[in-house]
Write a structure and sequence with these properties.
The complex is a heterodimer of chains A (about 240) and B (about 350). With about 240 residues, chain A is an alpha/beta fold. Chain A has eleven helices and ten strands. Chain A has a single domain, classed as P-loop containing nucleotide triphosphate hydrolases (Rossmann fold). In chain A, the strands form two sheets. Chain A has a six-stranded mixed sheet, with helices on both faces. Chain A has a four-stranded antiparallel sheet with strand order 2-1-4-5, with helices on one face. In chain B, the strands form three sheets. Chain B has a two-stranded antiparallel ribbon. In chain B, strands 3-4 form a two-stranded antiparallel ribbon. A two-stranded antiparallel ribbon of chain B has the order 5-6. Classes of the chains: A alpha/beta (about 240), B mainly alpha (about 350).
């Protein structure tokens, strides 16, 4: 069976900066895949290309058996490709419910979204309580929940998450990752970009490690966790237990 | 009767009685000022769609006013010997302005904030300079002389440019025009309200708040921005057509950058994104400079003679009022719901 998403020979440049170099990547339907790497490695660029926000210089994107490269950003959501952007990107002056409704904007006018709203409110009870409040008044963690919920409103098949742990308290990060796990368990395919490599490796099935625009390693997450190179570069050389 | 109905009835009576009261108390000149205020309200409502709803800073908005005015002037004057009826002229002006809106919008899609402001400013100037120079090799706009003898606004058998006699009641031109302009303003308010609460209105708000996030939500940001430019421009075109028919004369002089800035001030001072605020801002800023003309008389009364030339003092006080307003109420006189919510829950 061909994978849900296939990227080959992807090149991204911003002016003189070569952000992504001949990148190949595959995500199978229902799989949980993570892209890890340091700041500026090109992880976010890959997601932005997939969402259609950045035009690549070269490369072929295949999604669900058809070519995605020429499809404009606003049509990709309808195909089931949803992005939770870095820094959350909520609309601070709209209410929580209005934010969520924006997530399903591609749906036909007048379509009933009650079921989708219920689903999201089921995952995040806090959002239901505050649904008529403006989103700018939420805490960072709640805003991340809102961004996640908003992406779910599109009923995505491929959910792309860009640094969901960014700037959040550890407890909140755990809570967010728990929900991401739940979403994946419902059959949504995940492509997760994270700097917090440990969390990402624990959640996902397979990982790509990026360094200065290139994939330098791709393997199952279990193998990555055991890989001494990954351990020293991304997980800290030694665990606390080993130090003792 | 419900409170809402009473309120609507009250406003209707007030709006209908206003020109008669003004005429009786302040004279015909002030009814004329009211007419211009209504044209400014129309302009401000149009710019509010672009700046207030979609968050696109446009400093060349007067260009659409000019397009509407010249459209009317060229199609209803001896210049080309064409005399279209009003019901065709006004939509034609609005449509032409809307297409100019798309023309301006297309090359500026990637721009925001200061950069967009500079390009739109240039666009406004280009339109004015074109109007100034399109008299050679083929005389289209008649250059700096402008176009005169424009057909007055005429509805069926009634020419609004003359005093109408209705059952013993004499209604002068300035008042006829008031009612036509009022109808235009009410139409624009109705449209703005519908747009604001629609899916499109919400999408504009999303683009204004975070364009990248909006694009990743599957919003066609290109078409939505072009739609904002076109809708906003069409109000400007309508206002321009009414202006041309009212004045009977148009020339490039009426469409300077100063007008664009003035309309923007009305929107910002009144309360960006809020219809009532924008209307209030437009009325205040178009009436205030006229009211300040009375300063000469006031000086004589209080100080015995005119110390400072009223025309200079007038602009000084106007500027001072703007500065004070922005310092004391940066969100505008009647801020938009979303801004208010933010301030109260913040």
């Amino acid at each position: 069976m061909s994978p849900l998403l296939e990227v080959s020979g992807l090149e991204v440049r911003y002016g003189g900066i070569h952000a992504v170099r001949s990148l190949n990547l595959e995500v199978g339907a229902g799989e949980r895949v993570t892209l890890i790497g340091a700041n500026g490695a090109g992880k976010s660029s890959v997601l932005n290309v997939l969402a259609g926000l950045v035009k690549p210089v070269a490369g072929k994107l295949t999604y669900d058996g058809s070519l995605l490269t020429q499809v404009p950003a606003w049509q990709r959501v309808g195909l089931g490709v949803a992005l939770v952007p870095e820094g959350r990107g909520i609309f601070p002056r709209l209410t929580i419910e209005e934010n969520l409704l924006m997530g399903a904007y591609h749906r036909a006018l007048g379509a009933s979204l009650a079921q989708e709203l219920d689903h999201v409110y089921g995952l995040f009870a806090r959002l239901r309580e505050r649904r008529h409040q403006v989103a700018g008044t939420l805490s960072g963690g709640e805003q991340q929940m809102l961004a996640l919920g908003r992406a779910l409103m599109a009923k995505p098949r491929l959910l792309m998450l860009d640094e969901p742990s960014m700037g959040l308290a550890p407890l909140m990060v755990d809570r967010i990752f728990e929900v991401i796990g739940k979403i994946a368990a419902e059959g949504v395919t995940l492509l997760l970009v994270e700097q917090n490599a440990r969390l990402a490796l624990e959640l996902c099935d397979r990982a790509y490690v990026m360094e200065s625009g290139r994939v330098v390693l791709s393997d199952s997450t279990a193998a990555c966790i055991d890989n001494p190179l990954v351990r020293s570069a991304y997980l800290g050389e030694k665990t606390i237990a080993e130090v003792r | 009767m419900s409170r809402l109905r009473l309120k609507i009835l009250g406003s209707a009576i007030a709006l209908l009685a206003l020109p008669f009261l003004t005429h009786a108390l302040l004279g015909q000149g002030w009814v004329r000022i009211l007419d211009f205020a209504l044209l400014y309200v129309l302009l401000a409502l149009g710019l509010n769609i672009v700046v207030g709803y979609a968050g696109l800073l446009d400093l060349g908005y007067v260009a659409f006013f000019a397009v509407g005015a010249y459209c009317y002037a060229l199609l209803a004057s001896p210049h080309f010997e064409v005399h279209w009826p009003l019901w065709a002229l006004l939509p034609a002006g609005a449509l032409l302005a809307a297409s100019f809106g798309v023309l301006l919008g297309t090359p500026t899609l990637g721009l925001r904030g200061d950069y967009l402001a500079i390009v739109t400013l240039g666009f406004g100037e280009i339109i004015r300079i074109f109007l100034n120079n399109l008299n050679t090799p083929v005389n289209i706009t008649n250059g700096p002389q402008g176009i005169g003898l424009i057909d007055p606004l005429r509805i069926g058998p009634w020419s609004l440019g003359e005093t109408l006699h209705m059952g013993g009641l004499e209604i002068p031109m300035v008042m006829n025009v008031y009612f036509l302009f009022l109808a235009g303003v009410l139409l624009a308010i109705g449209l703005s309200r519908r747009l604001e609460r629609s899916r499109i209105g919400r999408a504009w708000a999303a683009i204004r708040e975070d364009e990248i996030a909006a694009a990743s939500m599957g919003l066609n940001t290109r078409n939505l921005k072009l739609l904002a430019f076109a809708m906003g421009a069409s109000f400007g075109g309508l206002s321009g057509g009414l202006f041309a028919g009212f004045q009977g004369f148009v020339s490039p002089e009426s469409f300077t950058l100063q007008e664009s800035v003035m309309v923007l001030c009305m929107v910002v001072l009144g309360g960006m994104g809020n219809i009532a605020g924008v209307v209030l801002g437009a009325v205040l800023l178009s009436v205030l400079p006229e009211a300040l003309r009375g300063i000469g008389g006031l000086q004589e009364l209080l100080l015995g003679r005119v110390w400072v030339d009223p025309s200079n003092l007038r602009l000084l006080l106007f500027g001072l009022a703007l500065v004070l307003m922005m310092l004391l109420r940066p969100e505008g006189l009647l801020p938009a719901r979303a801004r208010q919510r933010e301030l109260h829950h913040g």
